Amino acid sequence: MNARFERLGAYTFLCLFALAVLLPLFSILSVALQPQGAPVTGLSWPDDPQWGNFARAWTTGSFGDLITSSMIVAVVVVPVATVLSVMTGYAFGTMRFRGSTPLFYVMLIGIVMPYEATVVPLYYDLRQFGLTDNYLGLMLPEIGLSVSFGTFWMRAFFLSTPRALIEAARMDGANSFTVLFRILLPVARPAVTTLMVLFFVWSWNEFLLSLVLLQDPAVRTAPAGLGLFVGQRTTDVAGLSAGALIVTVPVVLVYLFLQRHVIRGMLQGAVKG
């Protein structure tokens, strides 16, 4: 009986949580399908859904170019930040060297310090090197911000791996790279996949850095472009809602495609932590 009530309570909580997540999405979708200029009706489904609002928003907001720019940045940031995070996490999690602890705390500054405070000096520094208004100028800060968390994430995982496994490999003559790539990485695949998904979401949703560093419309990313689209079309609520959903679609697709790996990575970290 107690198990039945516990299961009922768990399903009730999950349903309420799902409802809290889905209701705003349903509301935005219903608004996006309203006729242009119609009053916002909240959660009511329109009598004549205007699916053409998405095509209109795609064309007028140049979301094809914006999404391409975001994809170019994410395709570079995610693998580079992941490789660097795995390497640094492996070093801090399995090796002992002088200054490792202070150096690790220095790496954590990227997590605890709000990067918004550094955007203005960062802009002037990058402008001095000619790195504004191009993808590289946005990729480098995003990689730096991602590696701080990635190092923390992967270090926690490598610390939880059995030391006997690493010592046995070293006794068989395996060097550090062999231990990492042949022994630890196959086990760490869920954690690495989860980290890559997080990096993709953060890179895709990055707004402030893109808005400040990329003034050229030709290289502007989707969140910054959506922000300017909102500023230009304040009265077209249906078009704004359609644009917001268009920008959200890639992140949702990535998560749906990799959700099993993400859940495994989260559970793996929770159990081992």
TrEMBL record:
- Give GO terms for biological process: transmembrane transport
Task: Report how it sits in the membrane.
Answer: Multi-pass membrane protein
User: Any keyword Transmembrane helix?
Assistant: yes
Q: Does Oxidoreductase count among this protein's keywords?
A: no
Residue stretches spanning the membrane: 66-91, 103-124, 136-158, 179-204, 237-258
The residue ranges of the ABC transmembrane type-1 domain are 67-258
Name the GO cellular-component terms. plasma membrane
Q: Where in the cell is it found?
A: Cell membrane
**Keyword tags:** Cell membrane, Membrane, Transmembrane, Transmembrane helix, Transport
Q: Which Pfam families match?
A: BPD_transp_1
Q: Which PANTHER family match?
A: ABC TRANSPORTER PERMEASE PROTEIN MG189-RELATED (PTHR43744:SF12), ABC TRANSPORTER PERMEASE PROTEIN MG189-RELATED-RELATED (PTHR43744)
Write out the similarity annotation: Belongs to the binding-protein-dependent transport system permease family.
Q: What is this protein called?
A: Carbohydrate ABC transporter permease
Which species is the source of this protein?
A: Nonomuraea turkmeniaca
